[in-house]
Structures are given as C-alpha cells and as structure tokens.
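[agent] plan:
  1. take the single chain provided in the ticket
  2. run structure prediction with default settings
  3. attach structure tokens to the ticket
  4. add a short note for the reviewer (M.T.)
[agent] executing step 1
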Amino acid sequence: MILRPRWRSNEEDNLKTIQLIISTGRILKIFSNRANSGGGMDGVRDVMHLLEERVAMLTGGRDRRGGALLMFPTSARRDRLKPDDYHRLIKYLVSIPTDEVRETGFTVIVDMRGAGSTWGVVKPILKVLHDHLSSVVHAAYIIKPDNFWQKQRTSLGSHKYKFEVNLISMEGLPKVVDSSQLTPDLDGTLHYDHSQWIDLRLAVEDFMLQAVDLLDQLDDIQEDLARNDYGEDVASSKNGLEIHAAMKKRIMKAPVEEVDVSGQRLLQKLTGDTSSGYDSGYSGRDSEASTTNPDLQAAVPQILNHLDSIRSTQGHLLQLWQHKKLKLDQCYQLRLFEQDCEKQNVYVNIKRILAVAHRMMEVGHYAAAHIRTVANRLDRAWKEFAAGLDERTAVLALSVLFHHKAEQVYNSYQSLLNGLDLLVQVCLEFPPPPSSPPHVRYAVSPVI
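[agent] step 2 finished; step 3 output follows
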C-alpha cells in the first residue's frame, strides 16, 4: 500500500504568494468598483433622463477654498423633478469627485434668474441637501433675481439648514468663485459641454464595468487554479493535466488586450495625451474641456488601477498556471512510479523504477522525501526477494546435483548387481566337486 502524505515545499509558498497578490488585486477591484458606483448607487444610465433635463451639473469649477461647485442653472424644467429625483441625481453627482474633494465640501450655486424660478421650486433642492447630503455641503448660494421680494429673503434667512445658505447677486458671485471657474451663463470663462460630460461618464462607467467583469473572470480562473485537484491515481492525474491545459486557453482567451486598448483610448480622451497613437475622437476645445475638468480627471487613477490590476492579474495567473503545471506533471510521474511499485512482482524492471525515482529526486520533485522512502523500501524488498531467490536457487542446484549423483550411484549399483548375477549363473553350470580329492602321483627325477 502506497502512503500519500501532504507535502509542503518552497514552491507551495511561492504559489501562496502569487495567490495573495491576485487576492489583493481582487480587493482593489472591489473597492474601486464601490468607489465608482457608490456602493450600490445609481450609475449614469440610471439617472440619464435626469441629467438630460440639465437641472444640475458638475462643471469641474472650484470655489476659492478648493471646494467643488454643484451647479443648478436656471431652468424651466425644475418643476418636473420630484424630491426623490433630486436626491438620486445629486447623490450621483457628489459621488464622482475624489474623497478629498467631498471632505472639503461642495459649494452649491442655485440660479433663480429666469422664468419659472420661484422660491417654491428652489426650496425642494435645499431640503434634499439638508435631509440627505448635508455632510458634504459647505454652503449654498442662491443667485437672486432683480425682483426678489424682501419677505422671501426674510423667509430664507429664518429657515434653518445644516449648512450656510446665502442670497447673492451676480455682482457678488466672483467674491466667492473666481470667474475662471464659472461657466459663461454666469459671466465666467470656464468651458463646459454637458453632452460631452455625459458621453465621457458613459465611457468611464462602461469601461469600469468591463474591467470589473474581466477581473471577475480572472478571479474565477484563479479559484479554479487554487483547487486541490491532484489525482490519486494515474488516470485521474492524467485527466488533471488535460483540464489544466484547457485552463491556459481560458487565461489567454480573456479579453485583456481588448480592455487594455479601451482603457488607453479612454485615458487619452481624459488626459488629451496624443502620444499613444490612439484616436480619441476628441480634439480642440472639447478635449480641453475634458482635460481641465478635475471631476472627470478623478476617474483617471481608477482607470489606471484597473488596467494595472488586469495586466498583473493575468501575468500572475500565467505564473500560477506554470507552477501548478509543474506540480501536476510531478504528480503524474509520482502516480506512475507508485503504480510500478505496486506491480513489481508482475512485470516491472526494478532497476528502471529505481532509476526513475533517482531522476525525480535529482530534478527537485516536490515529493522527493516520499519518493526516497518508497524507493528505499522497494530496494530493500527487492534485495530480500533476490536473496531468497538466490538461496532457493542454490538449494535447487544442490538438489539437482544430489539427484544426479544418486542416479549415477544407482546406475553403478545396477551394473554390480548384474555382474554378480552373471557370476552366479556361471557357477551353477559347473559339475559338482568329488567327495574326496584325487590321488596324484609325481615322478621322481634321478639325481645327476
């Protein structure tokens, strides 16, 4: 019976390091996705119909403190939106800038000039900010129309909000916000294209979803690679090698290059960098608007993190795949070795088995200690078997010699018996001797 203990080697430590790197990328992906989506918050497509009403904008302007401007331009469409609509729209807009900008606090500018801009229309905006988003609002400035009544001003001043609310004229607005940070409708010089802003946000969020989906695919592959699927016999270990080969095809077929190209093009749109060779589709004034808008630029680090995470994850997966491929190969060799050991009395050449064992140990097999133990046990068993076989052979040889000598003795004994029998027969053919011996006379010779 072949024992199969659990081994631990430096290669396993390396694999765990790679898995930790991939897991870190997964955590980065989760936090980046949450930062982009607001942890279950609406995306640009969810509030598209509200954005197209142009009742609220994130122009990229900053007040003199460095706080982001949340603009509510004059619009006859304000009465179309319900408080819940304002809540969803504003919550989405304030989620776009960086955490640092949110901590600084937004400056809200509501333009009450123009037809249909009454206090009854503006009040729901302030109430939504007060009830749901007061923690990120520094102050609100209401641009008053020329015929704004004194009693309305008094009513506004007496209303208590969790942030500062001020009435301000067009002439006083530059004291709070430099004209370079205001759009032309507020006598400023900041270029802002709302349609382009929506298009860029669509591109950013589409890329984020595409990148997160790809990272999910790579993460699933990583989980499959981390699975302990080393076969317990030759057939299952060979099947594991075939499945592992298909795993590499999954890694290589992942649309890493496609997502990378998409991300590079998006970065060019946001940064205006033409050195990459990609055609961003934006140029001139439109390109300038996107590159000078810090709220759009806030997506650049997220895009770069996603691109880096995708590239590094694929690279680490290939490295992890290669490490596991080596172990699966070694596992297959080990199962063949164990199978040969179990069949040693049937047909296996012991010297070949031991030679295979030595080769596996020399190349640094992860189960070298186990192989050495099994090989030594096999070598001892074989030597004991060979010694017993030699002893039995010697006994058989002596037995053969004994039987050969015994046969020779038997043959010699038979010849002797045959000779004695012949002698007896000859003796029986002679006449019997007389009863007394015959008298013999000898002549005497004369003496000379």
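[agent] step 4 note for reviewer: The chain has three domains: 10-37+197-332, 58-191, 343-419.
[agent] ticket updated
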